[in-house]
Amino acid sequence: MQAKRIVLVRRPTGMAEAADFSVEQVELPPLADGEVAIDTLYLSVDPYMRGRFGGEGGPHSALPLGSVVAGSVLGRVTASRAPDWAAGDFVLAGTGWQTAAVVPGSAVRAVRTEGLPLTAALSVLGSTGVTGYWGMVDIGRPAPGETVVVSAAAGAVGLVASQVARIAGARVVGVAGTDAKCAHLASEAGLHAAVNYRAADFADQLAVLCPEGVDVYFDNVGGPVSQAVLRLMAPGARIVICGQIAEYNGERAPGEVSIPTLLLSRGASMQGFMVMRYADRAAEARAQLARWVADGQLAYHETVVEGFEATVPAFQSLFTGANLGKLLVHVAD
Ligand SMILES: NC(=O)c1ccc[n+]([C@@H]2O[C@H](COP(=O)([O-])OP(=O)(O)OC[C@H]3O[C@@H](n4cnc5c(N)ncnc54)[C@H](OP(=O)(O)O)[C@@H]3O)[C@@H](O)[C@H]2O)c1
Q: Where along the chain do its domains lie?
């Protein structure tokens, strides 16, 4: 069986480019005992991958040059010599940017969708949903009436995190990069307000929307957006540092003030976390998220790009904001 794979061949400078990858056609090996063959149905593109492309120094290990880009996929077993799997089973695997793969049966997991469509396993019930849930519930800990700001609020993590805070009774202000995303956040996600950080008067609009200051900031982006939000921190604010996408391509705005100094002056705390910390509580998050989706309290969204060949442009589009909700690449039916 043949498969196409996308391999990292050069470490990007700035935005990752098509020339940083090569698309290879390979013959998959015959199945050994205990192995399964899977076809990729959907693959995930995620901002953290940029850190893995760039070498050492980030929170994630560097992806060796010449490796298939690693990441989560939703697949279907096409052949099995593993006792737990049969052809036709839907599985989650870490096989990354390739159309098919042969892996040990122990390396794939059953898809649990709690009654939602299959792709939910990579979006609202996937790693990004769990991140938004636990980051907000366990670290942000929003109380009724508090003001919560979420950056990249219309993205995969942000859309969940912001609605979790709304469900907890907080006043939630989302930050996103287009007016259309802001409209979605107000209408579909039911946030108190949403503001476009590309507006010239973004900082002023945010200050008007947060007259008592910001009690919880769930930060997905860093950079100038966070500079504006952190200036509005209320005393004792909780800052959830979930991601810093504005810095992943190596850009830094001139004149940025020191965030630690701002924290010091307000007696605020900032806490980083990685979703892996909640690995043994993921099922709890999935069950709650699914209940909220089912009873209409939580709206989730997926942006699906067609075709394996669109994988690298799809990944690049995370940095220009083309996605609403979880960005997925549809590879096959
Ligand atoms: N801590 C963890 O364990 C963990 C787990 C998963 C994800 N994360 C992090 O969480 C963040 C969101 O990840 P995601 O998977 O949900 O991606 P996403 O939000 O679905 O996609 C990225 C979004 O970021 C926004 N963006 C891109 N560049 C930006 C910039 N320079 N300034 C402001 N906004 C920018 C874009 O939306 P706009 O149109 O609004 O600009 C884009 O849609 C990332 O930083 C990611 O690394 C952390």
A: 2-123+300-330, 127-276
Q: Which amino acids bring their CB within 6 angstroms of ligand 1?
A: 46-48, 128, 131, 152, 154-158, 176-178, 181, 220-221, 223, 225, 242-246, 273-275, 318-319, 321, 323, 327
pLDDT band at 259 (very low <50, low <70, confident <90, very high): confident
What's the CATH fold of domain 127-276? Answer: Rossmann fold (3.40.50)
Q: Name the superfamily (CATH) of residues 2-123+300-330.
A: Medium-chain alcohol dehydrogenases, catalytic domain (3.90.180.10)
pTM for the full predicted model: 0.91
What is the rounded distance in angstroms from the CA atom of residue 157 to the CA atom of residue 270? 18
Q: How many CB atoms lie within 10 A of CB 277?
A: 12
| Confidence category of residue 256, pLDDT binned at 50, 70, 90 | low
Ligand 1 pocket: which of 206, 241, 318, 328 to mutate (most atoms <8 Å of CB)?
318
CA angle in degrees (0–180, nearest 5) for 130-135-206: 120
From CA 98, how far away is CA 218, in angstroms rounded?
33
Per-residue pLDDT, 258? 54
And the tokens for 314? 């799809």
Element (DSSP H or E) covering residue 105: none
For the CA of 178, the closest atom of ligand 1 is 39
For residue 267, pLDDT beyond 80? no
Angle at 241 between CA 277 and CA 236, to 5 degrees: 110
Name the percent of the chain lying above pLDDT 70. Answer: 94
**Mean pLDDT, range 188-213, rounded to an integer:** 98
* CA separation for the pair 175, 172 (Å, rounded): 10
Q: Which residues pair with 3 in a beta bridge?
A: 26
pLDDT category of residue 58 using cuts at 50, 70 and 90: low
As a whole number of angstroms, the distance between CA 63 and CA 23 comes to: 16
- Amino acid at site 163: Q
What mean pLDDT comes out for the span 170-179? 98
